[in-house]
Amino acid sequence: MAVDFRLTLIRHLPTLANVERRYIGWSDESINQLSYVDIQGILSPEIIYGSDLIRCHQTASIFYPKSSYQSSPAFREMSFGDWELKTYEDLKEDANYQKWVSNPDEISPPNGEFLHQMATRVLIGLKSIPCNHPVVVTHGGPIRIVLHKFAPDVRDFWSRDVKHGDKWTLHWDSRKSFEEERRCKSISVERITASERMSDN
User: Fold this and answer.
1) pTM summary value
2) pLDDT tens across 144-158, in order?
3) Span 18-56, pLDDT tens digits
4) Quick check: 75 and 59 in contact, CB under 8 A?
5) How many other β-carbons are positioned within 10 Å of the β-carbon of residue 163?
């Protein structure tokens, strides 16, 4: 009998660059220590997987203080290249930036990463995790990649609101269904940093 496969993705808590609404990709910035998290009732798996950038490791340590952390560059945010740490106001007159916002599949930030390059490394990383109910602390870009590819309902890449501290869970009938890249049968999101809970089926 097939064992169900459940993937949980958590977006790291905000950094100063996030608060200032800057594009932060591979810059290794710590989380904003003013972040509030209610961890009551959160179970602690033996291992938490995630990005090798410090903001994800710090977030995992807050959410799951009793779990070990296994990091991988596969789960990093997109590399924003020359746009790293820039704001919308800095970039809004840049024609290439406008093209990227309209069609991120067809253009990359200068000296940065294409969306499909990030997607490939994220999926390889996820498929390499040996357990059937992994928890991964990562970034907004990788979470949107997974939701765009696997959510039951098809939406624009930018359309889902992925907040810092969100805990997204995707559910398949089996690991085989996930590895064959079929869409999951359900998703849910829990706002760990607030009391709000919502479902997205």
Assistant:
1) 0.90
2) 999 999 999 988 888
3) 999 999 999 999 998 655 566 655 668 999 999 999 999
4) no
5) 14
